[in-house]
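Figure 3 (text version): structure tokens given as input.
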């Protein structure tokens, strides 16, 4: 028994030493890649839009130069969380949240079946893209960024954009423009290397201190819960220690930044798992990558926070968390 305990202790100590090397590596990599290339492409990130709507978003997101598939996806996510039956207290309806008056004047028959149905994504998604492009045409002579001007017109009206010669000086409008443009980065397939997170090392350090803590479904680490976590409660708490407020559930945390490929993973990236690899809304588990093909995660009831391999059949993808990306997420979807 004593021999087994000694062997286990050595293994744990080696693992922790390995993690600390990785943590130091994060800082070194962050310093070396500060001026790295980043950005988004016209194509959507894998699974970022539910498969039922991905082709529509990809097609109609290229309707005019002011929009992109990723931008259109960000708007739909912001408005409804891709819920075609969403309805707000202000009577906004469907996946694109058109109010009846706007739908009456701007809804189109996107699928050519002879009707315009605000509840049908095949009509609502093309209508959202069409409306964006119509707004862009209203403000096309205004200087500055045409996409930002279009979004500002969506929020404050085309007249305000024309009056001020660009995004008007309204906090609500400026915040909306920043939120959607930032959020769109999490829906775009990266065109190049994704810059590392400077906060990653501290997030790993926090999660490392929780190794061995029993899992609790719904746990967020409160004193009343005995400091226990579920998977997304752990990742939320880890990043909160560095001033980044992530959403509560794993499938929303996926949209907190751009998505590095498997061979681009760095310690601190969030890694996600799903039984449906075509739909980020179906994600059911998340962990914090530590390098070497391993993560720290809170796996399930009856288990403890531990190291687990990430290369499993249900591996969905990863997110490199950014402060702006987290701030851009809607509070409810």
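Below: residues designed for each position.
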């Amino acid at each position: 028994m004593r021999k087994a305990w000694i062997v286990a202790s050595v293994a744990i100590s080696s693992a922790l030493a390995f993690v600390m090397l990785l943590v130091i590596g994060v800082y070194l990599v962050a310093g070396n890649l500060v001026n790295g290339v980043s950005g988004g492409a016209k194509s959507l990130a894998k699974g970022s839009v539910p498969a039922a709507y991905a082709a529509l978003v990809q097609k109609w997101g290229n309707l005019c130069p002011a929009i992109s598939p990723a931008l259109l996806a960000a708007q739909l996510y912001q408005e409804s969380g891709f819920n075609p039956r969403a309805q707000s207290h202000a009577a906004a309806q469907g996946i694109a949240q058109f109010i009846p008056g706007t739908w009456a004047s701007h809804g189109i028959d996107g699928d050519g079946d002879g009707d315009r149905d605000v509840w049908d994504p095949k009509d609502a998604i093309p209508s959202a893209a069409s409306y964006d492009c119509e707004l862009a045409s209203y403000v096309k002579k205004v200087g500055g960024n045409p996409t930002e001007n279009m979004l500002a017109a969506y929020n404050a009206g085309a007249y305000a954009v024309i009056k001020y010669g660009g995004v008007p000086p309204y906090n609500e409008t400026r915040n909306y423009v920043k939120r959607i443009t930032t959020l769109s980065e999490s829906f775009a397939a990266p065109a190049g290397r994704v810059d590392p997170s400077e906060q990653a090392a501290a997030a790993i350090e926090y999660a490392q201190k929780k190794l061995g803590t029993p899992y609790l479904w719904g746990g967020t680490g409160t004193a009343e819960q005995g400091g226990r976590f579920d998977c997304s409660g752990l990742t939320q708490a880890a990043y909160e220690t560095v001033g980044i407020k992530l959403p509560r559930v794993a499938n929303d945390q996926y949209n907190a930044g751009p998505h590095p490929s498997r061979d681009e993973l760095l310690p601190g990236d969030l890694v996600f798992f799903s039984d449906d690899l075509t739909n980020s809304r179906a994600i059911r588990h998340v962990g914090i990558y530590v390098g070497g093909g391993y993560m720290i995660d809170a796996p399930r009831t009856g288990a403890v926070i531990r190291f687990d391999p990430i290369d499993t059949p249900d591996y969905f993808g990863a997110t490199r968390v950014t402060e702006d990306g987290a701030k851009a997420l809607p509070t409810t979807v």
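The chain is about 40% helix and 10% strand.
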